[in-house]
């Protein structure tokens, strides 16, 4: 078995040992239910409040201005379904883009199909960038919510979020950004920098635990709940709080977000090295933009091949990468992001390398050395 080379940090990152250590007492000692009135519960409640205050200080938000969730998917679902439903009397138009994560796009599909909303999907340019002018022109008098991601998970394009948010603010429209891939990769000052009313964050993308995230909700916005059955999170998200996950999320936020744990000065030259090799291979086309891209992310398409063959070929060399949208019934769906770039023919042949903290020069050199053979084999179908 070859050694493992993990180039899939946009999918998830390993739990940091210090974050794990911070979580352990909450799995062993402080296991009470924060809603219980006895002293075991009250202790858990006090520790939950402490974690919430710590997150609030870190984000530059009030403790009441975010809801802990089970991750990015729930944060996006709550932000979009909850806000659209809360504002439905004001207007029925919603705006998003064609390159959002499925946990965003499928909420909009649902709202259009079952809740009577109309959805405008903004296009992107060949770099996967959303235009501020396009948004200005798309906004209607009945638009109540705009949701545009901060950075794209498949090709790494960073969006002009604060400018997009400013358009919404001027028009009095609620703005949500899915910042799941952005946190831990770009420098963070405070939550106000997005110009957004709602921001989704997810811990396992920056060495925190899986199943832990939050959605920032600028006061006085009140999305309708999407989970019912209890008064948790100020009546806004029912379900016993996952205290170990919350503590892990907050610890990883504080440790890895202000100065991003994805170190651009280390990762950019490594991604450039890979790009130089990819650029010389027959049939390969880089789709990650040269500028305004997450520095750890390098994506390309391979003419005459497909995602399954490419992933299998890389895996045989021990290399973990990713290819477009998730696997369904043993086949990879063509990437909706690559399709949105206008590259229909190669949308089923995306390779995404996403590098991270543990990536070494040696690993990159190894991948550079085997890549021509892996690609050629995948093109020949063997
Ligand atoms: C941009 C983006 N949004 C949302 C999510 C969903 O996060 P999770 O699967 O952890 O709920 C992901 C996960 O890959 C993502 O990349």
Provide a descriptive summary of the structure in words.
The protein folds into 2 domains: 5-13 and 261-380, Aspartate Aminotransferase, domain 1 (Alpha-Beta Complex), CATH 3.90.1150.10; 17-256, Type I PLP-dependent aspartate aminotransferase-like (Major domain) (Aspartate Aminotransferase, domain 2, 3-Layer(aba) Sandwich). The longest helix has 21 residues, at 39-59. 39% of the residues lie in helices and 15% in strands. The strands form 4 sheets. Strands 2-8-7-6-5-3-4 form a 7-stranded mixed beta sheet, sandwiched between helices. It has a 3-stranded antiparallel beta sheet with strand order 9-10-14. It has a two-stranded parallel sheet with strand order 1-11. It is of the alpha/beta class. It has helices at residues 17-28, 39-59, 72-86, 102-114, 132-138, 161-171, 232-235, 243-256, 264-279, 307-316, 336-340, 361-380, and strands at 5-6, 66-69, 93-97, 118-122, 143-147, 174-178, 198-202, 213-217, 284-286, 297-302, 319-320, 327-328, 331-332, 350-354. Helix 1 runs antiparallel to helix 8 (243-256), helix 2 runs parallel beside helix 8 (243-256) and helix 10 (307-316) crosses helix 12 (361-380). Pyridoxal-5'-phosphate (PLP) is lined by residues 71-73, 76, 101, 103, 149, 153, 178, 180-181, 202, 204.
Per-chain topology:
Layout: E1 5-6, H1 17-28, H2 39-59, E2 66-69, H3 72-86, E3 93-97, H4 102-114, E4 118-122, H5 132-138, E5 143-147, H6 161-171, E6 174-178, E7 198-202, E8 213-217, H7 232-235, H8 243-256, H9 264-279, E9 284-286, E10 297-302, H10 307-316, E11 319-320, E12 327-328, E13 331-332, H11 336-340, E14 350-354, H12 361-380
Parallel strand pairs: 1-11, 3-4, 3-5, 5-6, 6-7
Antiparallel strand pairs: 2-8, 7-8, 9-10, 10-14, 12-13
The structure holds pyridoxal-5'-phosphate.
Pyridoxal-5'-phosphate is lined by residues 71-73, 76, 101, 103, 149, 153, 178, 180-181, 202, 204.
